[in-house]
Every structure is written in structure tokens, then in C-alpha cells.
Fold:
Amino acid sequence: MSKDDEVGRIRGWLTGRLPDDWFEGPLEVTIDREEITVVGRIAAPATDDVSDVERDAAVSGRIGAFRESTRERRIEIARELEHRSRRKVAWGVDCGDRRELFTRLAAPVMTRLRQPERQVLDTLVDAGVARSRSEALAWCVRLVSTNADEWLADLRQALTHVEEVRAAGPTP
Structure:
């Protein structure tokens, strides 16, 4: 099954399983080997003619209220999905122009780095950008992700094409 098919299957299951009044519009579902992240849009509070500080506080309040009022049902639904998919489930919301992700999985990743790469990480630690090599490496990955979105999107599309060609080939 391709990754797009798997995302579609999970999104469909969630659409049928979630209460209709939780989210506006379609869900955003992102998966990797360990985790499924589900993000839905919730209604933004009416904040016409208010300061940016008041608007920010209203959005924070709306997100907090949603998180608390849906906690038990989200846990129940996540457990069902975790059992079906064998992945952890994380939740998030978009509200106004803000995205907030709730508790998420932090998966350890082991790598071997030569001295020049370790020196990059140590420089980030020494400069106070990160508290540890692990945090510095995560910072580097976020930086590459932010600056390489188009390249990574092209790579993911190419991988999807490879999966399709592989699936169309003879079965062993």
C-alpha cells in the first residue's frame, strides 16, 4: 500500500470516527514509521477590532478549551487508531493563523558523525543555540526541513512514483 493510500485510509477512518462538530474542513494527517499526527481546524474566536495581544490570548484560550474538553475522547480514539496502525497518535489544531501540536512522540535516532560534523554541533552548543548535541542535531534537521521544502517535496514525489512502479511489477 502506498503512503498516500495509507494516509487516505487513516483520514477516512478518522473522518468517520471523530465527532462532526470538532473540526472545520478536512483533517491533515501526516505519518511516518512511528507516529500519526492529526491536525484539524477549529473555529477561531470572534476578535474583530481588538489588539493583537487580545487576539493572541483569545486564540490561546480557544485552543486550550478544545484540548481540555476533547481530551478523553481523543485518548480513546487515539488508542483505537494506535491498535489498528501500530503507531503512536499525536493531535494538533489550527486556529486562526496559529498551529498548535499537542503531546508528540520524540523518537531517538542514532547516527555516527565524523569530527567536522561533531564540530558543527559543538559550535551550536557553545553558542547557546542548543543545550546538547542531540538538541543541536534536531535544530539542524528543522533548519534543513525549513529551507529545503521544495527539494524534499520533489524527493517524496519521486519515492511515490517508485512505489507505484514497484507495485505494478511482478509479484515474487
Notes: The mean pLDDT is 91. The beta strands are 24-31, 35-41, 88-95, 98-101. The helical segments are 3-17, 52-85, 115-126, 133-147, 149-168. The radius of gyration is 20 Å.
